[in-house]
TrEMBL record:
InterPro entries: ET-Flavoprotein_bsu_CS (IPR000049), ETF_a/b_N (IPR014730), ETF_b (IPR012255), ETF_beta_N (IPR033948), Rossmann-like_a/b/a_fold (IPR014729)
Co-factor requirement: AMP; FAD
Species for this entry: Hohenbuehelia grisea
Protein name: Probable electron transfer flavoprotein subunit beta
One Pfam entry name: ETF
Subunit structure: Heterodimer of an alpha and a beta subunit.
Chief localisation class: mitochondrion
Keyword annotations from UniProtKB, A to Z: Electron transport, Mitochondrion, Transport
Subcellular locations according to the entry: Mitochondrion matrix
Stated role: The electron transfer flavoprotein serves as a specific electron acceptor for several dehydrogenases, including five acyl-CoA dehydrogenases, glutaryl-CoA and sarcosine dehydrogenase. It transfers the electrons to the main mitochondrial respiratory chain via ETF-ubiquinone oxidoreductase (ETF dehydrogenase).
Entry note: cofactor: Binds 1 AMP per subunit.
Domain Electron transfer flavoprotein alpha/beta-subunit N-terminal: 32-225
Keyword Transferase among record annotations: no
This protein's record includes keyword Electron transport: yes
Length: 264
C-alpha cells in the first residue's frame, strides 16, 4: 500500500487565452500589433499543463487543481475549458477589454500574489513553457525567482514521490534530455512531449459551468500590469521570392557570385 503524504498536494495551473494555433496571423492595419478579431483558444502549452495536473491527481495524492488566468472578460471561457478537462476551480484576474496584454514580469508578480493569498499552500505550479502569441518563454522562470522556489523547465515527464516532497522531472535540452530532482514547492513548465491533452466530454463541459470562478482585479493583488515596454511598429516578414534552377556547379557558383556571396 502506498504511504500517503502528510497532507494532500495543491496544484495551480496558469492558463492564457491566445489566438488559436490554426489561425493565420495578420498584422492589423494600424501596424500596432496583430489582428485579434479572430478565433481564440487556450494556449496549447497550457493545455498540456492542465492535462498533466489531472494526470498527477490520477496517480498521486492531490487535493485540488486550481486554474488562474489574467485577461479580458472572454478569458473566462479559457478557464471553463480547463475546468471541463478536470480542474476544480478557477481564478480570473480580469482586465479591461482594451487593456494591453501584460508582460511576463507583470504576470509573474500577479501569480506570486495569487499564490500568497491562497488559504491552502500551493505545492506545484504547472504552466506552459511559452505562449504561442508572444513566445517570450519567461513567466515560469520569473515566478520561480520571485518565490525562491525550485524550477524545472521544458518538462517531458513529471513524477512526484509518494511522500509528496520531491518531484523528478525529465526536461528537454539540446541533443537529449536531463533529469532533475526538485524539492516541493516547485515551478514546472511543460514541453510538447509531456502528454497529449484529452478532449472534454459533454457531461464534463456541463459540470464545468457549475464550478466556481473567483473574480479579481490587479488592484486586489496589489500589482500594476501596465507594460513597461513600448511596441513601435509591427510588420509582416517580407514575402519569399521564387528560386531558380541551375544546370551544373559552375553555373551555381556564377549565380552566387552575382548575388555577392563568396566563400569564407
Amino acid at each position: 500500500m502506498r504511504p500517503s503524504p502528510s497532507r494532500l498536494l495543491n496544484i495551480l495551473v496558469p492558463v492564457k487565452r491566445a489566438v488559436d494555433y490554426a489561425v493565420k496571423i495578420r498584422v492589423n492595419p494600424q501596424q500596432t500589433g496583430i489582428d485579434t478579431n479572430v478565433k481564440h483558444s487556450m494556449n496549447p502549452f497550457d493545455e498540456i499543463a492542465v492535462e498533466e495536473a489531472v494526470r498527477l491527481r490520477e496517480r498521486t495524492d492531490v487535493s485540488s487543481i486550481k486554474l488562474v488566468t489574467i485577461g479580458p472578460p472572454k478569458s473566462s471561457e479559457t478557464l471553463r475549458t480547463g475546468l471541463a478537462m478536470g480542474a476544480d476551480a478557477g481564478i480570473h484576474v480580469e482586465l479591461p477589454e482594451s487593456a494591453p496584454a501584460p508582460e511576463p514580469l507583470g504576470v509573474a508578480k500577479a501569480l506570486r500574489a495569487v499564490i500568497e493569498r491562497q488559504k491552502e499552500p500551493v505545492d506545484v505550479v504547472i504552466l506552459g513553457k511559452q505562449a504561442i502569441d508572444d513566445d517570450a518563454g519567461q513567466t515560469g522562470q520569473m515566478l520561480a525567482g520571485l518565490l525562491g522556489w525550485s524550477q524545472a523547465t521544458f518538462a517531458s515527464k513529471v513524477e512526484i514521490d509518494s511522500a509528496g516532497k520531491e518531484a523528478t522531472v525529465l526536461r528537454e535540452i539540446d541533443g537529449g534530455s536531463e533529469e532533475l530532482k526538485c524539492k516541493l514547492p516547485v515551478i514546472i513548465t511543460t514541453d510538447l512531449r509531456l502528454n497529449e491533452p484529452r478532449y472534454a466530454s459533454l457531461p464534463n463541459i456541463m459540470k464545468a459551468k457549475k464550478k466556481p470562478i473567483e473574480k479579481l482585479t490587479p488592484s486586489d493583488l496589489g500589482v500594476d500590469l501596465t507594460p513597461i515596454l513600448q511596441t513601435l511598429k509591427v510588420t509582416e516578414p517580407p514575402k519569399r521570392v521564387g528560386g531558380g534552377k541551375v544546370e551544373n556547379v559552375d553555373e551555381l557558383i556564377a549565380k552566387l557570385k552575382e548575388a555577392g556571396i563568396t566563400a569564407a
